[in-house]
Amino acid sequence: MERPSHRPEFTLVPRPRKLSPRPGRFRLDARTRLRVTPGAEPAAALLRGYLEPPTGLRLEHSDDGAFVLAVDPTLAGLGEEGYGLTVGPHGVLLRAARPLGLLRGVQTVRQLLPYETLSAAPRRLTSLELPGVEITDVPLYPWRGAMLDVARHFQPVSYLRRYVDLLALHKLNVLHLHLTDDQGWRMPVAAYPRLTEVGGRRAESMVGPAGSTRFDGRPHGGAYTRAELTGLVAHAARRGVTVLPEVGVPGHVRAALAAHPELGNDPERRLDVWTHWGVCPNVLGVGDHVLDFFRTVLDEVMDVFPAPYVHVGGDECPTDEWERSPAALARAAREGLPGPRALHGWFLGRIADHVVRAGRRPVAWAENGTELPLDCTVMTWREPGDAWAAARRGHQVVHADHRTTYFDYARSTGPQEPPAQPGVVVDLRTVHQLDLPPLTDRVLGAQGQLWTEFVTTPEHIEYLTYPRLCALAERVWHPARDWPDFHRRLTGHQARLRALGVPYDSPPGRSLGAAG
Ligand code: ACM
Questions:
Q1: 154 lines ligand 1 (CB under 6 A)
Q2: Which residues are the active-site residues?
Q3: Which CATH number fits domain 18-137: 3.30.9.10, 3.40.50.300, 3.40.1400.10, 3.30.379.10?
Q4: Of 30, 171, 189, 333, whose CB neighbour count within 10 A is largest?
Q5: Pocket perturbation via mutation, ligand 1, pick of 279, 280, 381, 403 by most ligand atoms within 8 A of CB
Q6: Distance of CA 485 from the midpoint of ligand 1 (Å)
Q7: Are 383 and 362 a contacting pair, CB within 8 Å?
């Protein structure tokens, strides 16, 4: 017998905790009124914003409206993000203990509506039906995210707004924006305009993976304004998505060094914004002026991004320059460190302290051989066991294991795949098999990552992200690891992706990528 959740309209992704079909259907039309209780206004605004442009339905407020959105703090067991949804022929009741839960419930309503309601193309649908259903839903993990690297290839904020909306549809709640790297600096900092003026542009890009000898001869660049980022944060907040900014130190900083040579280990040396891929040997110097510079940068980051967490990078920091630098050797000795390599953890510790003193929580990539302060939430990416090890040490952990969550690896071994980061294939099933450490209060969740060395366009971003991010969204939301069930629901869900114009099944032309 077909299970109820496989009726086309119940092909919800991620799967709700409890779903039972009920008889009848609720008809939404020009007479439908919303009853919005105190605290439910943001959810009502979100729902109206989704419905009115494609359908013309306005869903005005009325105290006796049949479609009720209610925040009820006495509801037990729903936490911050859970919700209950009852749809019957005479009414709809969406309830949550917290406003955030209602925002998640609005996404379920959106998924229950006819697929074409999701389409950007306006069409006057005079009435819409929701299937009768009873849903009680809560997420498994509190951190359900996606990282997008806008440093290697810049994307305009208009695209980031769409990207956030796709995250929200899948009940993901963190957009991790990788804003700075060797190849580009996208974060505006009023005190240091050269960071974006100089660091925001590179002369050309390597063609093919790290070590290639070919370059494309095409300048690339871009940076955000403060107003654009503030607007993005507000857009995301209306959808219950937090924007986690990442400004990385002390490695992956060549764009900053191009703008400010005084931050480097040889202030006389002039470097360009890096045009290569791979791990850059140039890292920050360890003078007080460098720490002060990045404290100022982080103050601006924390001003623009109200997220409780701030990512300070910390990955892939070669120490060769420090080993040759008299100033770095003297710093290591003065700080009582065993040697210049320990400057990596020391530097991160100073920067993390600054973030903690500002009342935020620093996040850093876990790195082999570098002990991070316990204040740091760590993103573990190298080996699956790193997540367990970091949690045992006492860190909060976000799982970002590269073999299951890096979407810059190819989706399959097929000839249609665009050039991708070599060495590993991450297919849909691999993502669905994501092995998360047991849920404890230290394991916050997981996220997908898209590094964009070879990814220049929104179409390419979405081809690599979907449907793999659907599988990740499912694993962090629902405890079952039921591949056949997920796969059947995904077949229906793909109609939503199509209506939204997500090119999940159209590989971008090979010329877009790193043709080798
Ligand atoms: C990373 O992939 N360098 C975190």
A1: no
A2: 181, 252, 316
A3: 3.30.379.10
A4: 171
A5: 381
A6: 32
A7: no
